[in-house]
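Hey L., structure's done. Input below.
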Amino acid sequence: MRTANRWMTLSALLVLPATAVVVGPAQAADPPPVRAPVWAAGGAQGGTATTGVGGASGRAAGSTAAPPSGGTTATWWGHAAFVITTPAGTVIAIDPWLDNPSAPKSLAQPTALDAILITHGHADHSGGAAQLAKKTGARVIAANELSTLIGAERTDGMTPGGSIKINDATIRMVEAVHGSSYNVDAKNVRYSGPPVGYVITIDKGPTIYHAGDTDVFSSMALIADRYRPTVALLPIGGHYTMGPDGAALAAKLLRVKTVVPMHYGTFPLGNETLQEPVERLLTEADRLGISDKILIPEEGVGIEW
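Output:
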């Protein structure tokens, strides 16, 4: 695994400009420059941003080729949306609200996906999933109740504890602490099953835990014992999910090598600035002695393992 090629001190939260070669669903041959991720003091272990530093090359939208180095790449699309590409070229989208306010405008949306994972029915996670599945040919994996509501042609309904194998990725559904409803239309809001997270075990790659919308809960330690995730994608925005202090505690329970925060900076909440959750996470991680695990992503920049 690679170590970071750019380190930032805890107080240096301003992002340094870099010309990034985007790994993920970019269609343009020469994508415009985007910003590189911020690394916490000491550097996150086990992941590196696939920027121009180190000579990584891009990957076209819809391509089923493996990432340039043969590794696993996760590209953040803002909010809770990620597109993951495995060493064998399997492409998985998670909570693909790809036109959210934070989504990178320089990237074209994927044209080919193997699977779409939905953590719960709220529109900021399930919005557009059926249309994306139709366009890309993906199967949609969701809680059983939600799978019957979402309107996709190919669905796999599961409950926590269930698993499915897609090429070189084993996908396990796990619990989350949140709510879940689905707006069938403006006047028809339906219960859509339990909120969930996913653990994705990738052959010759990392084991990635996407927590969905959740608070920290004690069974995260059980997730660590059973599935041994190495990377955790954790919400930090507060109000609708756990905040930075909860996410830092979750990182301790999960015993992962890398923590990538998500679900923040999309909408202003109260008097917080959009970046305040990040600052608070880094402060709390430093207090708990885990600041070396934190990787602050940038929208549209691939993180590679």
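Residues 1-45, 50-66 have pLDDT under 50 and may be disordered. Residues 134 and 153 are 7 Å apart (CA to CA).

-- N.
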